[in-house]
Design a protein that fits this description.
Radius of gyration: 19 Å
Order of helices and strands: EHHEEEHHHEEHHEEHHE
Strand order of the largest sheet: 5-6-8-7
Largest sheet: 4 strands, antiparallel
Shape: globular
Distance between the termini: 10 Å
């Protein structure tokens, strides 16, 4: 273990980057490369993509429910978690390649927006992370136009387990901590957008217990603000100097 006096907290040291016009490829025409002869679609980061419709999402989720029953949500979360961890590694590679930046040397908000916008182009929706509570060891992420929730429509319960796992996996790697995530409000419950909580396993378990008891996202936030769950170590992007 590295002692505290040997740990260096990087204060977002600025690095020179190339012109943003050279790396801003937000349009679908620039982000995707279509190989009509091979029938393949690659994205700007050389990852293979598939085009699927709503029927694919419904069939996937229904198929999992048929095979594993109520564990389908947990399985989707685990799939998302592994996806998020792997994507965190890939992101850090292309973030350094295109921007000459790392999570340690960049502005965190800029890094998070840079990570997520390919998902928006791919049809996974837009997001708005709220990092205000990081000093207490947790934060919220709002998701708009969830591909899962929009497809399933009103279900009366959270359905975006894949997204929850994706966020937990990515931020576990980014913050070098074991983090979990849960959806505390969902478009499929009649809300205007989905909201996720990212934090420790104990905090997530408490939130899920309150949700099962009928608590709303605002009530959960109020209980956290009231200190019903003790503050935990701040979530920081750190580098360790050996």
């Amino acid at each position: 273990m590295i002692s505290q006096d040997r740990r260096q907290i990087v204060q977002n040291t600025p690095n020179p980057i190339v012109s943003t016009r050279d790396v801003a490829h937000y349009s679908r025409a620039q982000f995707f490369q279509f190989d009509t002869e091979q029938g393949k679609i690659a994205d700007y980061h050389r990852q293979r993509n598939l085009l699927v419709g709503e029927d694919f999402i419904v069939s996937l989720l229904k198929g999992l429910e048929h095979e594993v029953g109520e564990a389908a949500g947990w399985l989707c979360y685990q799939i998302g978690f592994e996806w998020g961890k792997q994507d965190a590694v890939l992101f850090q590679a292309w973030f350094a390649e295109f921007y000459n930046l790392t999570l340690e040397t960049s502005n965190l908000a800029f890094a998070m927006e840079t990570w997520w916008w390919p998902y928006t182009v791919q049809g996974w929706g837009t997001w708005s992370p709220n990092l205000e509570n990081r000093a207490s060891g947790f934060f919220y992420v709002d998701l708009f136009d969830s591909a899962v929730a929009k497809t399933l429509g009103y279900m009366g319960k959270p359905v975006c387990h894949l997204y929850a796992g994706l966020l937990a996996g990515f931020f576990s790697v980014a913050f070098k901590q074991d983090l979990c995530s849960t959806e505390i409000q969902c478009y499929a419950m009649g809300n205007d957008f989905c909201r996720f909580l990212v934090g420790s396993a104990d905090r997530i378990q408490a939130a899920e217990f309150w949700i099962a008891s009928g608590a709303k996202a605002t009530e959960i936030a109020e209980r956290f603000d009231a200190g019903e769950i003790a503050a935990e170590p701040e979530l920081k992007i750190e580098t360790e100097v050996i």
